[in-house]
Amino acid sequence: MTTSLIAAAPTFAWSPKVAAVMISCNILAIALGSLTIKHKNVGLGLPSSAMFGGMGHGAMLGVTSLGHVFGAGAILGLASMGVL
């Protein structure tokens, strides 16, 4: 079953459009996380935490991971529609 899912995934080359989609999704996730995470400054701090809404290391790692999930879905969806 896994091989059929991999075979069904669209293939495309990296381009600046793909990078723009991933960056946009990460910015969206950071904005969403800075508005919704209750205890975002717990743990290690970031050197420029004021720029990211006062988030600590763990919160930033979590929201950028979520941003990559959003980005992968958006890139695969846009590639299957023929936009990328």
Please supply descriptive tags for the structure shown above.
PSI_PsaG/PsaK, transmembrane helix, PSI_PsaK, mainly alpha, 84 residues, 3 helices
Can you describe this structure?
Keywords: Membrane, Photosynthesis, Photosystem I, Thylakoid, Transmembrane, Transmembrane helix. The chain has 3 helices and no strands. It is mostly helical. Helix 2 packs across helix 3. The longest helix is centred in the last third of the chain and has 25 residues. The mean pLDDT is 80.
Question: Layout of SSEs?
Answer:
Elements: H1 2-8, H2 16-36, H3 57-81
Number of strands: 0
Instruction: Report the uncertain regions.
Output: none
How large is the share of residues in beta strands? under 5%
Terminal residue distance = 26 Å
Which oligomeric state applies?
single chain
Structural class: mainly alpha
Radius of gyration: 16 Å
What is the N-to-C order of secondary-structure elements (H for helix, E for strand)? Answer: HHH
What proportion of the residues is helical, as a percent range? 55-70%
Main pleated sheet: none
Average pLDDT level: 80
* Coarse shape: elongated
SS field, number of helical segments: 3
Summarize this structure briefly.
The chain is 63% helix and 0% strand. The chain is mainly alpha-helical and 84 residues long.
